[in-house]
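Fold this complex.
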Amino acid sequence: MSASPECVEIQLGERSYPILIGSDLLGDPTHVDAVPAAATALIVTNTTVAPLYGEALRRTLAGRFRAVHLLELPDGETHKDWPTLNLIFDALLSHGCDRKTVLFALGGGVVGDMTGFAAASYMRGVPFVQVPTTLLAQVDSSVGGKTAINHPLGKNMIGAFYQPRLVLCDLSTLATLPPRELSAGLAEIIKYGPIYDMAFFDWIEANVEALVGRDPAALAHAVRRSCEIKAAVVGQDERETGLRAILNFGHTFGHAIEAGMGYGRWLHGEAVGCGMVMAAHLSQRLGGVDAAFVQRLSALVERAGLPVTAPALGAERYLELMRIDKKSEAGEIRFVVIDKPGSAVMRSAPDAIVREVLAQCCVD
Amino acid sequence: MSASPECVEIQLGERSYPILIGSDLLGDPTHVDAVPAAATALIVTNTTVAPLYGEALRRTLAGRFRAVHLLELPDGETHKDWPTLNLIFDALLSHGCDRKTVLFALGGGVVGDMTGFAAASYMRGVPFVQVPTTLLAQVDSSVGGKTAINHPLGKNMIGAFYQPRLVLCDLSTLATLPPRELSAGLAEIIKYGPIYDMAFFDWIEANVEALVGRDPAALAHAVRRSCEIKAAVVGQDERETGLRAILNFGHTFGHAIEAGMGYGRWLHGEAVGCGMVMAAHLSQRLGGVDAAFVQRLSALVERAGLPVTAPALGAERYLELMRIDKKSEAGEIRFVVIDKPGSAVMRSAPDAIVREVLAQCCVD
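Structure:
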């Protein structure tokens, strides 16, 4: 029996749900009491996470569902595509899963995004639960209902807004996370500072070594505060018609790096870390922040173990990749920029200025 | 300039939209005035419909969108699959379409279902308009927001509830419909009688030859009344948690015929026509209607040019196929049956009774 977890609530009317944050949650059946009853459950995970936590979750669910199936997907961003998504549909249909079957996404952002989109689409929608096992998924991707797969021409281009019924953030799973993945998660935590909460940014600056060292109390605070901010933003703008776009700070440049390098070469969080530095430079050129702020953000990203120098894809390639970003309109790239520390807005920028930022941030 | 069309409204709060029904609507730009403004539109159609109406719709939209692209999909239910759906995403991305791009589904149910699902999923949702050119699509599939593609193991298994912004039912397009397709549409019109409105059933009985003969006034009445009934049902239960399931009368048997014969061998409407006769027999055995009612429905289906004898797939194969129907729960098949003429309910039935129905309805 685990200690009582903390709870952050996502307020979306009839689509509201809790995020439970704590240690040793996976093995405690009481935490899934609120999940809708059904004959079957399908745990979707990957070949890396399954041996670590697959059986524990299966045992936890065995008392609640007559049949609990487990599907292992190949691991990695390169597999966030249709053929892999279709493995989930194949499993659901071959196990005779019906409209009430509950899907459990056990893993990182790729597993969560694909399982969520499968849940949104199978029989036009079945319930699902996020069980994020990476820091990035716990502080960002498992919360808020964005689901998607990649298209060869663009990241997360095919998907749905579809909310889970529950998010179970088991902090104990972070113990097995590779260091590179931990740093990738820190990128999305750092993000919440410049766009929303500079006091949290100060706290991260003071605690980044504790976070990198996996201090449990530091990680617990970082996950909870990140989820609170994300819940506040998503609760105001579920479908990203306005405010929610600020959560994409660093993502326009970051997606271009991911796609341009080939999915999986850079982790999503690494690309976002570097992308935030680039977006900070752009914000400075547009007058929102000063050089000292850019330097401060860049230093923190670097201390978190993340890259701060962008790959030299060439300015034309960057511009081409960024033009097919989801925030673009009528071919015009729209960036999330900091208009003052702790506040972000979405706006376009002259290509000439973007080229200057690229020249400044890319390695030769 | 066409005569002013009739309008049936689908009432779904902020997702409400009009169905416009009339002649020569395609060529009149005033009917798309209410469609959200955007830089680009993509007309999705197929190789059969494109030469007939593609250019007319493109001209109509040219004044409202800076760029109007047209994509021709291969024709037929066999292509209602992922590779064909992906052609839509390829076109959207290669044309630089953004979150505001409007999709127009110009064609029958297959084009409408696939375009709707593409619109639901592209960048997590863009606006779309249904422009149904078959009778079946005008009276059923284009209305109500069900979108989907088939999976090899089951029909319409992957999809979304996603409402269009407008349905443009141009009755003039029915002039070019092959007779087999016209009959297929009549199946879904006949359906509304036993489940909801026996007065309409009486009217169809009295007018079925006029409908088969494409009498414009008869078709206009049948389309309007069908849309009214569908709007009333969908308005009460958008996501099919209850009442809406009655619209699947004949579809459990019908989907089994379609999948069992191989998609495309039987038209969807043909399978539904025959499936309604089978479901009527089942309803009789369960005590909802008498033999005279079954005979009356069967005669009308036959007069509409539809098959009333089911293919001999074997009882086991039927049961296997019907168990993966979306209405099944925990492996139990659930049928829409008539509990009294003009009223339908969903219920399970003992396999033994279903076997009797199959023995009675299948050709040797």
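Chain A has two domains: 6-176, 181-361.
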